[in-house]
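CORE FACILITY INTAKE
Project code: CF-77B
Contact: R.S. (postdoc)
Sample description: multi-component assembly, two entities in total
Requested service: structural model of the whole complex
Turnaround: standard
Below are the sequence entries exactly as provided by the requester. Do not edit them.
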Amino acid sequence: MSQPDVTNSPAPAGKTKARKRPRKVGVSLRARGEPMIWLTGGALVICIAMIAGLLGLVLYQGFATFWPGELLRYELRDGQVLMGELAREETHRPDESMLAGLAEDEQTVARDLLGKSEEGVLARRLVRTGNYDITRTHFHWVEDFQVARTEAPEWAAVVERMEWGRFYGWPIGFKTEGQMVTEDPAEVWSLYRENIDEVIARRAEITGLEKHEIGAINRRLEDMRLALRQVALDEGEDSAAWQAKKAEYDRLEVSSKEAFSRISVDVDALRQENARHVLVMKTVDGSEVDLHLADVVRAYLPNRMSTGDRIGVYLDRWWEFLADEPREANSEGGVFPAIFGTVSMTLIMCLIVAPFGVLAALYLREYAKKGPLVSAVRIAINNLAGVPSIVFGVFGLGFFCYIVGGSIDEVFFEAKLPSPTYGTGGILWASLTLALLTLPVVIVATEEALSAVPNSMREGSYACGASKWQTIRRIVLPRAMPGIMTGMILAMARGAGEVAPLMLVGAVKLAPELPIDSVAPFLHPERSFMHLGFHIYDLGFQSQNSEAAKPMVFTTTLLLITIIACLNIGAIFIRSRLRRKFNVSQF
Amino acid sequence: MSKLITSLLSIALVALVATSAASAQELPEYRPTKGVSGNIKSVGSDTMNNLMTLWAEGFQKFYPNVQVEIEGKGSSTAPPALIEGVSTFGPMSRMMKEKEIDAFEKKFGYKPTALSTSIDMLAVYVNKDNPIKGLTLAQVDAIFSKTRKLNHGEDVVSWGQLGLDGDWKSKPISLYGRNAASGTYGFFKDKALGKGDYKDSVKEQPGSSAVVQGVASERFGIGYSGIGYKTADVRAVPLAKKDGDDAVPAVAEHAYDGTYPLARPLLLYVNKQPNKDLDPLRREFLKYVFSRQGQEAVSKDGYFPINGAVAKKMLAACGLEN
C-alpha cells in the first residue's frame, strides 16, 4: 500500500539515484514484514491445530465409549457362531502362506475379496463376545471372508454384570423362587423390568447396612483392640490396667457379636429377597445360563431400542462412571473415588502452597535488601521449577513418608505398628510434595504481581503514617491479588496433571475409602487415594483386559481434562471478581 | 545360591502340580467372621496387580470397611516393603532371592512365609497375524539373549531364521520385555535364558499389559508376559523344552501336568512370627485367598487356581488349620 507513496514522493532530481537502493529495501517483502506475519500466524495455527486435534480425539473417543451399539450374530463358514458388539475394524495385507493355509471355501471368498479391493487388503473386525466365565475370552477377531451370514437378532440382550464382565445372549425364561414363570421373551423382559429397580434398591440397602452399620461395629472393636494393645505396650500385659481393659474389650466383643448377628439377619433377608428372581438366558453356542438379578447391573435389548432408549442407556452409563466405585480390578464400574481424590488433593495442595509461596515472595520483594544473596535465592527458586517431578516424588517418599510419617507413627500410633499409619503414602504427603513442586510457580508469579504495584502507592501509604506491614496488608497485597491468583491457576494446572511423583507418595490402584468422609474425625489425611492421572496409566498399561480398557482410557482422560478446566475456570472467575473490585477502587 | 533358588522353585511347582493331580479335594467356602477391620496394604508384583485387586474387592464384600491399598510396580519392590513394614502382603511372581531373605531375617530373626496362591504360565506372545507354529526354549533364548546360554547355533534376529516364509522371511524381530524390577523379568531370565543376559534391543515396558499391547501393535513383535494378560490381538506361542519335543500350548491342562516349560507359582509373602498367630485381618484375608471364592478370582484374572489340598497346605504353613 505504501509503495506508490514512497516512489511518488517528491524528491530533488539529483538525489534520486542515490536513494533508490534503500527505497528498494523498503519495498521488499522482508522489510514489510509479510513473512513474519505468516511465520507467527503459522506457528499459532499449528499450535491450535495440535490442541484441537488432541481435544477432538479425546472428545470423540471419550464420548463414543458408552454408546450402546448393535448386537450382531455372525455365522462363520467353519460352523462357528459368535455374537457380540463391534469394537473396531481394520484392514490388513495377507500373505500367500496365510491364504494357502485356509479352508477351501474361505480361500475362494478371501481371494475374491482381495481381487475386488483396490489396495489388496482384507477387512476384519474385532467383536466383543463377552461371556468370559464360559469362553475365557473377551474379544474375537472375525475376518470378512469367514462370515457366512450376519444378522441382528431381535431379542438379543446385553447384560452388564457385577462380576465377569458383559453377557450376551437371549432371554428364554424368568424364574421366581426356582419356579419358571414364563418362557416368552417379551414377558420375560417385562418381568425383568418390573423387578430390577427393586433389586438394585435392595442392593444399595445391603451395601449401606454393611458399610455403615457393620462398619461402625468393626471400627469400635478395632479401636478397642488398639487401645488394649496400647495399654499392653505402656503397662505390660497382665498388669491391672490391662486386665481392666481386657474385660472391657471382652464385653464389647460380646455386645458387638449380638449387634453383628442382628444386622446379619437383616442383610441375609435382603439377600434372600434379591436371590428370588433369576433371568434364564441362552448363549449363542446354545448353553443355558441362570443370571441372578442380584448380579445384574444393567440389561438392555440393543436391537429393539429406539434412539431415545439408547440415549437413556448412554446417560445411565455416564452416571455410573461418574458416581460409582470401580469394580473388577478397575476395569468396570465408575471412577468416583478417583475424581474425589484428584479434586481434594489439588485443593489441599493449593491451601498449602498459597500461604507459603506468597509469604516467601513478600519477603523477597518487600523486605529483603537487594544483593547477591537475594539473587542467588531467586536463581535457586527458578531452578527448582526445572527439577523433574519424579525427584520431588523421591524426596516426598524419603522425607515425608519415611522420616516425618515414621516418627509420627512411633509417637502416636505405636499400637498399630508394624502396619504404618502416616509412615506410608497418603493424601497429606502427596499434597505436600506437590506443594513443593508448584512452589516456584507461585513465588515467581507473586513477585511479578508485587513488583507491578506502583511504588507511589506504597509511598503514599507511608506518608499517611502506615507501617510497613500495614502498607503491605492494606495497599500492596489487595492490588497484587489478581496476579497471585494467576500464579495459583498455573500451579493448580500443573499439580492436577502431575502423576509421576504421586505414584511414590500415595496414589494407588484401589482405595475406595475416601480421604474425607462421614466417620469421625472426618478428615483422614493419612489415607492413600485414587488419582485420575494414575487411573489412566493403570487402565492403559496394567489392565488385564486391555482391549476393553482402551476406550475407558479416553473417557477418563476426557474427565481429567474437564476437571482441570473446571478448577481453572473457578480460579479465573475469582480473579476477575478481584480485578473488578480493585479497578473501581483505584481512584 | 541361585541354583538353590531354582531348585526350590521347581520343588514348589512340582509339589503344587503333583498335589493338584493327586487329589480332588474341594476348596473350602469362605465364611466371614466379625470384628475384622483395619488396613491392608500390598506392595509387589505387577503380574499379580489385578489379582490382588480382585481379591481385595471380594474381601471387601465381606468386610466393607477394611481398607485395601494395592501397589504393583514389580516383584522386587515386595521384599523392601515387607522389611520396612510398610506392606502387609508381598505378592511376588518369583521366589525371593537369598539376599532378600537374608535381609528379612536380619531384621526380624525369622524367614518370611511364602504361599503359592495360583499358577501362571509365562507366555511368549506374537502378533495375531504371525504364523509361527512353535518355539523351543533354545530358540527363545537365541531371540531374547545375547549370551545364548542354551546353546542355540546362531543369533536369531529375523523371522526367516525361525522358518517363516514370504513376507516374514527378511523381517527383523522386534523384542518387548519387562523392566528389571519385575519378577517376570527375573523368572524369564532364569528359565528361558539360562540366566544369560537380555539383548540391548529388548524394549523394556513398565507393565505386563504394556508388553502385550506393544506386540499387538507391531506385526513383527515378540514379547513375554503372564498368561492373564492375553488379548485377542496376540497369540501365545506353544513352547517346547528341547529340540524335537512337541511344542506345548499355554492352556489350562498343561499348567497342571507340568509339561509347559514356563509355568510358575504366583506367591504371596507374609511376615509371620513363627510362634504367634496372625492378626485377624491377615488371617481372614489369607483364608479368603485360599477359599473357593478367592480361587474363582484367580480364574477370573486368567490364571489357574490351585486345588483344595494345596490350599490346605498353604493355610497350614501360616498356622491356619481348621
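Facility notes:
- Chain A has 19 helices and 13 strands.
- Chain A touches chain B through 60 residues (CB under 8 Å).
Invoice: internal transfer
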